[in-house]
Amino acid sequence: MKIVVLVKQVPDSGAERNLRSDDNTVDRGSANNVINEMDEYAIEEALSIQEKHGGEVVVLTMGPSGATESIRKALSMGPDSAVHVADDALHGSCAVATSKVLAAAIGQLDADLIICGAESTDGRVQVMPHMIAERLGIAALTGARKLTVDGSTLTIERQTEEGYEVVTASTPAVVSVWDTINEPRYPSFKGIMAAKKKPLETKSLADLGVDASEVGFDGATSTVVEHSKRPPRQAGNKVADSGDGGVQLVQYLSSEKFV
Amino acid sequence: MDLALSQEQAAVRRLAADFVDREVMPYAAEWDRRESVDTGIVKKLGDLGFLGLTIPEEYGGSGGDHFSYCLVLEELGRGDSSVRGIVSVSLGLVTKSIAAYGTDEQKREWLPRLCAGEALGCFALTEPDTGSDAASLRTRAERDGDDWVISGTKMFITNGTWADVVLAFVRTGGEGHRGISAFLVPTDTPGLTRREIHGKLGLRGQATAELVFDQVRVPDSARLGAAGKGFSIAMSALAKGRTSVAAGCVGIAQGCLNAAVSYARERQQFGKPIASYQLVQQLIANIAVDTDAARLLVWRVADLIDRGEPFANESNMAKLFASEAAVRAANNALQVFGGYGYIDEYPVGKYLRDARVTTLYEGTSQIQQLLIGRALTGVNAF
Fold first, then answer.
1. Structural domains of chain A, ranges and CATH numbers in brackets
2. Which protein family is named in the record (chain A) (predicted)?
3. Active site positions of B, annotated
4. Residues of A48-83 as b/e, b for ≥16 C-beta within 10 angstroms?
5. Does the model's ipTM exceed the 0.85 cut?
6. Could you say which of A69, A193, A195 has the minimum Cβ distance to residue B64?
7. CB–CB of B64 and A196 under 8 A?
């Protein structure tokens, strides 16, 4: 089984993140760029499938040249090789254009299974698995908290707010995963050293047969007109306990769906 | 000269830092209180490849250079010196000695398990009556046919009660260092009893033990290196081992710096953060300079080892300075914390207790000074 894992480099969600003032895109220059956290679960899932069923795991990343660092980190966890789609014309691409590029790259890899994180911590739109599956004409099994592979049959437990749904499909298919699905492994020292020698192929838009006018700002289906800083946090609600404090707390927690 | 880390070295350091932040720091205070780390940490260290650093891959090691080894040991030292000590002793003193002096059979028997964290080693040189004067050790091995029969007592042995194999230094010949040989003794050999030593000031999470050899019989194939060469094996192990202690001390000092800076910015007195007072900044600046100076000395030794250059004197300097710097750094950090540094809710008190032993073991500060003095003057002042 050939598994392609989609890995995105994002600004560290634990630190201050900004949009650029000139073109409203994510400011990668000033950020500490890391692997999108959910993608580490996708890598782990691909590796554990490989351990059980054999095959090959390929990392696929679209991003600027600096994304190589995250690709090497992904490879140090164990995947066999990586493809990095990098092209200056991609800057400013919307989700629809991104899905076109990723689908074209996946098409060249002849994958049986594509696994990705359910969302990225920068865009958080959760549409990529559906869009890619639609473009490739294959099934999308999204939001998995469990994935079982039995020959060419894939079964997931799709996590919902109330519980889960069991969904099945045949390969090839796209599966997106939540962080409840596994516990990602650490890279090992040997993995870090080996990652340096693993094949990392860089592809341009021309290599994928995608026209530059279909991506970037020119091909974008949506435009960010302006952005502003999130307002500072407001003071929270204070509950003064005059006998009914407990009830008020439960009412608040209930209204926010915490209980 | 380039002091920047390579991409791989930076990745190894990040891996070690990430592991320490998630798997060590949150538990270090509890392990200290109950006087034992969670020994499951050993297998995790093995899985990461940290117990096989610098050991050839054909024997189950991770390969890699001493520089990476020092980067990992620094991070472990920042997390918990008890965990760092497990690696310093099992890998740094025992596994590396087997890799350097072992027969192919000894390497195949021990290295894969030691590197995987499926077995631990301990290094038995010190005795109740011989510390700095190690060449006067009294544990004896008598020849009996093809076997050796060992009797005597070893003291303050790190990993002692956890270890699967003891690298024991015993007298097989006459007086002095030429009468000493090294043996690999499995800890389940009849006649070997181990008693854990409690009540230590620091390194409380680590098993430190007294080992009693009562007619312990091992075959001649358990001898590591030639008969009479044991002392030089021990000294060679310690020369590199001191680098790992020094690297761990850099980690302690860095941990003290991190804690002191963050506390000084939060703690308010007289209506201002204490970081805004010059005397507090002085304490912090001193910690920072000690940390960086110690790190640079450690990096120099690691670089010398990796380039195959002589390193013994530089290693002594790094160990002397880094251990004393760690004690100073922890003392200064505790001063920044005031009363809160004196209780174990914050890490600085533990840093101070853990740092304190590093000026004592693997060569006291005084022994390091005498070694450095001898190297410079050519005169032995022992």
1. 2-219 (3.40.50.620)
2. Belongs to the ETF beta-subunit/FixA family.
3. 362
4. bbbeeeebbbbbbbbbbeebbbbbbbbbbbbbeebb
5. no
6. A193
7. no
